[in-house]
Amino acid sequence: MTSTRIAAWDGAYSRSVAVFVWMAALSAPAPASPSPSAPDTAPQITVVAVGDICFAGGVERAARKAAAEYPFSRMRPTLTGADIAIGNLECALTKHKDGLDKRYRFRASPSWARRLADAGFDAVSVANNHAQDYGRVGLADTVTSLRNAGVRPIGGGHTLAEAHEAQVIEQKGVRVAFLAYLGMFPPLLPIAEREPSVAMANASAFARDIKAARRRADVVVVSLHAGVEMSTTPSWRQKSLARSAIDAGADLIIGHHPHVVQPMERYRGKVIFYSLGNFVFNPSPSFLKNPRGPWSGMAHVTVDRSGVVAAKLVPLRIVDRQPRPLKP
Ligand SMILES: [Zn+2]
After folding, report:
1. How far is the CA of 304 from the centre of ligand 1 (A)?
2. How far is the CA of 128 from the centre of ligand 1 (A)?
3. What's the gap in Å between 129 CA and the centre of ligand 1?
4. What is the mean pLDDT for each group of 10 consecutive residues in the chain (328 residues)?
5. 277 CA to middle of ligand 1, Å?
6. 288-295, long-range: CB within 8 Å, 24+ apart, which pairs?
7. What's the DSSP call for residue 282?
8. Cα(229) to centroid of ligand 1, in Å?
């Protein structure tokens, strides 16, 4: 993208008062009910979650031109400042060139796993419709490169059991379990127990996995890849999946896939972020024309051993493939 085009893009959207008002409304703090049983002295930690991350195409080119850390440089202080930071990695990190027969395939260098770690990510979801773009080999490479870099893959693994196993991260004595699911059907590849796989969302998987996660953690977070691309409201299916994960015992749902930000919701005292939009993603020409395109959302959540204490949706702005806080 040329600098002229960036300026035009910026200018057009900074004039878009409607979008700003909409985003500001979404960002209103929405504290969850504090648990009456939690003592005041209970340790609290912050969990931040961001949306879709894909290094393919223009992002790799922009990073080559500027600096490898370019995509995350404005958000690194926020991500590293949180006790736990997660995102949705929506591309395969592999050198394997044999892709699936599908319209959009996203692949980037495995070295990006280290950049995710440097940026402050503790875990990323790979249960999405692009982690398997380069087949089971591509997914296996992604999982391995993430683990080697110290970033935990969630919702995907070298076997189906690994994909369904919660990743538990403990900070200040608070244990948070992360599960991730792909809520789009049919699966890209046939379900195979002993092959590299992603976890598919359904009520029985939620019930089994969340129950197992509860035994090892105080708080259970479910990352859910579902919904309709470019839609600003959650679909019936998205709502039903997110709510059924809460019915099964999850405390917090982090949604993504629509590429634009959708509202958050309180359901049975728990919190659902339906879609955080893009975080680092090469925009398509049609995406650039969408007034909501340059906006991204970050879930900022405070948890203690009893669950979610407070949650808010923080608006971010994307300028030339780089997410930025609204206030520097
Ligand atoms: Zn997706």
Report:
1. 30
2. 6
3. 5
4. 30 39 46 52 92 91 85 96 98 92 91 96 97 96 98 98 98 98 91 95 98 98 96 96 98 96 96 97 81 92 96 94 87
5. 10
6. 288/9, 290/230, 290/260, 291/13, 291/16, 291/18, 291/19, 292/19, 292/22, 292/232, 292/260, 292/261, 293/260, 293/318, 294/9, 294/10, 294/13, 294/318, 294/319, 295/19, 295/23, 295/260, 295/261
7. P
8. 8
What's residue 61's pLDDT? 87
What's the gap in Å between 95 CA and the centre of ligand 1?
Answer: 21
Q: Residue 323 has what pLDDT?
A: 95
Output the CA 225–ligand 1 centroid distance in Å.
6
Q: Which fold has domain 3-33+41-325?
A: Purple Acid Phosphatase; chain A, domain 2 (3.60.21)
Whole-model pTM: value is 0.88
Tell me, in angstroms, the distance from the centre of ligand 1 to residue 221's CA.
19
